[in-house]
Each structure stands twice: as structure tokens, then as C-alpha cells.
Amino acid sequence: MPTMMRVGFVGLGTMGAAMAANVARGGFSVSAWNRTTGRAPELAALGVTRQLSPAAVATASDVVVTIVSDTPDVEAVLFGPDGVAEGAAPGALVVDMSTISPSATRDFAARLAGRGVAMLDAPVSGGSEGAQKGTLSIFVGGAATDLERARPVLEAMGRTITHVGPIGAGQAVKAVNQVILAGTYLGVAEGIVLALKAGLDVEQIVGALAGGAAQSWVLANRSGRMLSNDYPLGFKVALHRKDLGIALAMARELGAELPVTELATILEDELIAAGHPDDDMSALARAIRARSGLPG
Ligand code: NAP
Predict the structure, then answer these.
(1) What is the best residue among 69, 174, 242 to mutate for testing ligand 1's pocket, by most ligand atoms within 8 Å of CB?
(2) For residue range 165-181, what is the model confidence (pLDDT) as tens digits?
């Protein structure tokens, strides 16, 4: 591997643009492609060069990071026309950091392996703030030797890097994370709505509960939004809904039943249909409020 590792980015959305910036600041040689041209112009000042296709990014890189929306999108940038697979030399490493299906991830890795290209799945938690600050939590699936190759790049983007198992395991952990979030947000939303209906002082209650077993990051950081019924962006309802679809497909494959997650998908579908796909997911409280006769 050259002294200055060449890192390619495919996808410069909210997450990818911030992550590419941190990798460039970390001293790597970075080139990138984004479907819509003109995204993330600020990267030019950090020395990030643009390529004309995912294949061109792969040809110019030792490690290719893909960070796009959903499973079909990763498939498109890897295996579509001018995709990463067309440009990657044998020995290259693809690190998919999108949140997608674990089983599709295993399929993509097998197809890349047929061309001598290695793959890690490395989905992230920590939101756009974590991406900007370089403090993401990264769940990595794949071979330990491939993780060691990618580790310096991942360290430029995240604070906690955990090798959780073979290929696909990172996505499985991310699905677990999203399922736990569904229950936590719903529980806090129901508690806040019940407190409002009872005429209690919600801010006082949040403080009182903070020391007990009901404490959580969501209670501490998102109950205020549920109280004011205003949901500025942290993590989009639409993205969480996508992730619950992945988790439920995984549950079906494994024979697990997730009733709280099922309920969260119903409520999130309602929010999306009502024009709130880009609200923060604490907007689950909007659905509980509406059912309870409070302003929705
Ligand atoms: P985003 O801002 O909506 O950006 C999506 C990116 O994917 C854009 O660069 C988009 O290109 C590209 N893309 C989508 N479909 C594509 C396709 N078929 N072909 C080529 N490019 C395509 O999303 P984001 O917030 O960066 O999220 C990216 C991934 O990270 C998702 O899997 C998400 O679940 C995950 N994630 C997000 C967060 C968060 O807080 N936002 C946190 C953890 C994980 P265009 O510019 O052309 O649309």
C-alpha cells in the first residue's frame, strides 16, 4: 500500500460529505463522486478531487467508502454501469458505511470477492453531528485483516470502532440499534403524553426521572421537543423507517417477532404520509399526541 493511502468516497450526502472532509483533514489523498454534481463544494478547499463515476473513484483508490441511502443504491454504485466493481483493481477494499440489509451485504461481498476485491460493512451511529465531529460509533463486519487495513481511515471518522463479526454483522448490529431506538422513543413519547394529559409539570418530571431506571438519552435530550411539539432535524423519520424495514426483514429471516418495531413502522408511515418525513424521529410523539387529542 502506498505511503499516502488513497481513499475514495461514493456518496457526498449529509454523512458522506462530512466524513470525506474528516478523512481529507486526516492527511489522506481523497477523491470522490456524487450522483448529483455540485454537492459539497466545500470539499475542494480540503483538496478532495472529483471523479466522473464510481468506477473512476475505485480505480484511483486503495480504499473505497460507499455511503449512500439504501440497499438498492449501494447495489447500483457497486455493480451498476460504471460502478465500483468495474474500476476496482484486485486487492482493493470496499467499505460500505451506509445502513443497508445484512443479507444483501453478504451477497455484495461475495460478488466483489469474485473479482478479488475485499469488503467490510461499517455502518455508523452518531448522526450528522457525529459525522461532522469525527466521533461516530462504527460497527464493523468482515475479516480482521481488512479492518486493520481500513482502521486508519475509520479512525479519521469515528471514535469507537468495534469489530462485531463476519461480513454483514455490522449491519445486523445497526439493525439492533435502530430497534432499541424505536422502543425508547415510543416509551418516552407515551410517558410525556400521559404526563401532559395528567396536567403534570413535564420539565420537573424529566429531572425527577433522570436519576431512576427510566432515564435515557432520549428522555434527557428529546423530551423537550416532544413537549414543545417541534422536531428540528437530528435523525429523519424517513431514514429510521427505512432502517426498521431492514430490521423487520432480518427478523423474518431469523424467526424473531418485534411487535414494538411493527408499531413504530405504522406510526412512522403515518407521519411520512402526513408530510413529516424530514422531521426528527422524536416526532413519533406527534402521532401519540394526535391519538390522545393533543395538538398534533
Ligand atoms: P442523504 O443526505 O440523503 O444522502 C444520500 C446520498 O446517497 C447522496 O449522496 C445521494 O446522492 C446518494 N444516493 C442515493 N441513492 C443513490 C443512487 N441510487 N446512486 C448514487 N447515489 C445515490 O443521506 P445521509 O444522511 O448522508 O445517509 C447516508 C447513509 O447513512 C444512509 O444509509 C443512512 O441511513 C446512514 N446514516 C445516516 C445518519 C444521519 O443521521 N443522517 C446516521 C447514521 C447512518 P444525490 O446527492 O445524488 O441524491
Answers:
(1) 69
(2) 999 999 999 999 999 99
- Cα torsion 65, 67, 68, 71 to 10°: value is 80
CA–centroid distance, 24 to ligand 1, in Å, is 19
3 ligand 1 Cβ < 6 A: no
pTM over 0.90: yes
Q: Give residue 293's Cα distance to chain centre.
A: 34
Burial class (CB in 10 A: 0-12, 13-18, 19+), 42: exposed
Distance of alpha carbon 201 from alpha carbon 270, whole angstroms? 29
Residue 280 DSSP symbol: B
Task: Give CA 103 to chain center in angstroms.
Answer: 17
| 77 Cα: distance to centroid of ligand 1 (angstroms) | 12
Spell out the domains of the chain, with CATH numbers in brackets.
6-166 (3.40.50.720), 172-291 (1.10.1040.10)
Is 122 touching ligand 1 by the criterion CB < 6 Å?
Answer: no
In the three-class reduction of DSSP (H, G, I as helix; E, B as strand; rest coil), residue 94 is classed as strand
Task: Report helix angle 217-228 to 202-209, nearest 10.
Answer: 180
